[in-house]
Amino acid sequence: QVQLVESxxxxxxxxRSLRLSCAASGFSFRNYGMHWVRQAPGKGxxxxxxxxxxxxxxxxxxxxxxxxTISRDNSKSTLYLQMNSLRAEDTALYYCARRYCGGGSCYSxxxxxDIWGQGTMVTVSS
Amino acid sequence: xIQITQSxxxxxxxxxxxxxxxxxxxxxxxxxxxxxxxxxxxxPKLLIYAASSLQSGVPSRFSGSSSGTDFTLTISTLxxxxxxxxxxxxxxxxxxxxxGTKVEIK
Lengths: 126, 106
What we know:
heterodimer, A: mainly beta, four-stranded antiparallel beta sheet, B: mainly beta, 11 strands, about 0% helix, globular
């Protein structure tokens, strides 16, 4: 079945780095853009980053721009999030999610997140 | 940046009630709004796409509508499994979520 499985979370000190992975299965990963979304404990959802299906374009939330890098390996059906210079405010459950454009072009259609992983927890603390 | 204001932040309702949750955008976003349900310890689930399109497998008691910059999620007859937190999300300008509405048992 269609599935996303995140891994790589853990406890890390402020200023250090961590790399998250998201393994996709059950669909043609190379045909879909992918997002990272995070949720701080007891808080709402915050979009983090997007990468297009072919890796040609990337976009980031202002809160992580310059510190986080989203990437993908379509040969491995895997999405990544490299997180550098981590801060306490980056503590959250990180979800990967599939980009959904209603079956049409993402240039001219609303977008949503139609498939989500179960999340991986990142705690930034000294 | 486009601001999305979701209301109420929480509500108490009984099984069988009609429930309405609203999101208001700070500017026009056409139909670039979706709705999600999140239960404790679970990932969000897409309910409504493009303001009013029901996702496959989502019960028909869920519906979405829009009027200008106001968007509404309606649960026509609340069921026990509907107690959860609901989020709206706009995709007109990057991607941003509303603050969430927790639907609790009355």
